[in-house]
Amino acid sequence: MEAGFRSFDYQRSIERIDEILNSSDSLYEDKEEIPSRGLLTFNNGYYVKCSALFVDMRGSKELNSGKHTRPVLAKIFKTYISELVALLKDHSGVSEVYIEGDCVWGIYNTTKKKDIDNLFSVAARVSSLVDILNIKYRKKNYSEISVGVGLDYGSSFLIKAGHKGTGVNEVVWLGELVGRAAQLCSYGNQSSGDKEIMVSNAFYLNLNNHNKGLLEKNEFRNCYHGNVINKTMDKWVKDNG
């Protein structure tokens, strides 16, 4: 979020610290689904069941090694990020989508098992989207990219954090869920023994039998993994590759 200069007043800072530290513990509630942003204040929070999907580029340092001009690099990253954001929003339970460098990730309401299967479908389409992007890059003589994808289901702590009264604030997700999904994402395509999509044991257990059959156990990473694509998008890849 863009920010401007504002002088720091330590006495006001102490007041804000006390306001938060002295707020009632009862303001931090358990929820089975993600509440509206409008319900969040600087003095409350929610512990919610949800899923996280992370996508991160592999080898982005090499991409920035000088092979391409800055305008070309901008075109690669803009197309990659814009289309990932568009795809990660294509789930009825989407709550938040974030961009952190060349990582794009989202948080999703997955109160029903079909929601988890639908999110797995989003991950498969991510793989096919990367294939489409690489065809476009190859035809321009640009470097191709690869990604890792991580999926997890569990509980996360949702709070509003920032500087009260300034408009500088953000929804923050705390706890193991986001960290696990990010870690799984970092494993994807990391080595020859790691497939592109990495799925936690909890996420895997909630998939239907068909989707479970598309994955296999990765004992070294203690998760499930697979190279899974979307058939419709893959037809375009085969016709245009």
From TrEMBL:
<dbReference type="InterPro" id="IPR001054">
    <property type="entry name" value="A/G_cyclase"/>
</dbReference>
<dbReference type="GO" id="GO:0004016">
    <property type="term" value="F:adenylate cyclase activity"/>
</dbReference>
<dbReference type="GO" id="GO:0009190">
    <property type="term" value="P:cyclic nucleotide biosynthetic process"/>
</dbReference>
<protein>
    <recommendedName>
        <fullName>Guanylate cyclase domain-containing protein</fullName>
    </recommendedName>
</protein>
<feature type="domain" description="Guanylate cyclase">
    <location>
        <begin position="51"/>
        <end position="185"/>
    </location>
</feature>
<dbReference type="GO" id="GO:0035556">
    <property type="term" value="P:intracellular signal transduction"/>
</dbReference>
<dbReference type="InterPro" id="IPR029787">
    <property type="entry name" value="Nucleotide_cyclase"/>
</dbReference>
